[in-house]
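Hi R.,

As promised, here are both runs. First protein below:
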Amino acid sequence: MSRLRFLTACAACSLAVLLGASAPAASASQGQSTFFEAPAALLNPATRPATLSVLQTLGVHALRVELSWHAVAPRPDSRRRPSFDQTDPAAYAWGQYDDLIDAAHALGWQVLLTVSSPVPRWAQANPASRTLVDHPSSREFGQFMTAVGRHYGSLVSTFAIWNEPNHHEFLEPQFFANGWPASPRIYRSLYQAGYAGLQAAGIAAPHVLLGETAPEGLAHAQAPLRVANVGPLVFLRETLCLNASYRRSGSCTPLAAAGYAVHPYPSAAGPTAIPRNRETITIASLSRLGRALDLAARAGALAAHLPIYITEFGIMSKPNRYQGVAPAVQAEWDAISEHIAWANPRVASFAQYLLRDDPPPRRGARAVGFQTGLEYSSGVRKPLFAGFSVPLTVTRRGGGYALWGFVRPAGGATSVTVEVQRPRARRFEVLAQVATNGLGYWTLSSSTPGSHWRVRWTGPGGKRYTGPSIAAR
């Protein structure tokens, strides 16, 4: 999770180009997890049961959980490290993390556990720093990860080390005084120590994701240094000890990783807008990351064909006053984003950050929080609540339309009813009954003129799903 990002708006490109409209469905991903993250609701014992029930109805089968080192460590605000065995799980107060992960495990859901800052004050290079993200000790972190591995190793399918390490709110310093990136090498040390810590816990080949990077940043620092973030591709290269040409710039050994994780939030220009900054990774520019990973593998810094995991994502809606779009547009853009991810065979997961929006900011407040949820902060449902279960995209193609969709709660092959609202008509009519593939995805080509489309699906238990009205793009 991170605060509001200001991505450079840029010219949009055709959705058909991004999705490879002429490419056969076989080139697309054959199956993706969707990691859902709702930290406030899921970690609160009062709201957890109802939230899990809602997520089950939505078709969720995987959670992302951010584990704060500071939240579970002994005497986390002391400047002096207390005397205890840092590798012993019994020394930590796991609290509601245990209950949440146990509940997910009981449901048979995947859990991605991202272990991250804030850190105990005694684990910082400068214990007097108030940030709790100031150059954390890799030695202390490695021992903590051994405790994490021993405690959660049998319950967690995938680990990730650090949330958005290229963002100043989660790791400092991001840059040296001379303007060159500092955080990538700090992160490399933390990652290596964390990976080794999991192995020390008895997990011989831990499934760990590298990266978890925010979408934007700089190649060189600009004043003020404290609020500058490192661009994700710069961060990748520096973490792997590669120069701008993706050639070895040091004697670093390769890093073991199961995949590279990103948070490719789009700019306010939408999910098909290619950012001008070539170091930026949004949902529209995932191919940049694929090329970068291939070049890094060619240099011997990573394994070949490393998959891409989208582990945090969302579309900002109103009332966010900076990047918020109309709620109906949020549902459309989210479906377009998932379609882009599905169409990329390199992408192993999609994600949704927040079930319910952060509360609106108080008057005069600078931080506005995230309004990427399926519900407003009041609990009123947005169109995305209906659209998340049965996402739909409609793309103009020649004189007709290409439709794509997914039935998330199905868990297998099923059939959906596709409806069209013809131009100047008031009501929807049935366009087609479409069979999905074995994972719940479907496509349809149509020459029927329309202004809007939607899908209907009835689950085995009789629950009816009706997606929001979607316009063609």
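And here is the second one, sequence first, then its structure tokens:
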Amino acid sequence: MKKIEILGLGCPRCVKTEEIVREAVKDLGFVEGEDYIIEKVKNPADIAEKGVLMTPGICINGKVVSSGKIPTKSQIQTWVLS
């Protein structure tokens, strides 16, 4: 199971990133709770602890894959499948 963390305080860019992540995994045919879980990390200390200085950020299974930008759906799918 993939653990996908959305790092951000809830700004519009962070909300959009979460929407794209959810669409990307759903388009892959993944089922939430079986194939992946999504957690929102809003605590600035927790975000900084992961080394992310600009939000939105995305961590997959503990690895930061994106920071400071809204990724495309295909980028997210590549990260999830790797």
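A quick note on the second one: The longest helix spans residues 12-27. Let me know what you think.

Best,
J.
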